[in-house]
Amino acid sequence: MLHNLALACVSCSLRKEARQFVADTSTGGLVRLFSPRADIWSEHFAWNDEQLVGMTAVGRATIDALRLNRPLILAIRREEMVRGRHPPS
User: Which domain holds residue 21?
Assistant: First the structure.
């Protein structure tokens, strides 16, 4: 079972729950969530300053489901930009 563990913040973990599929807001179709073990981050996401942008249906659905651009997260990323620590390398 250890192979299935992943480190995630509490709010993202609670938002994901046990879901593996969610609706893509652009198409309405059901798509799987991003899997950090199976997917390549840069194929699904890009940065626009502090805003995370979904480049694919998987990326968009993951951002929406986990609310990865909620106001508090954007404020944290802006502060990290001032400190030269965002976007991550």
Answer: 2-82
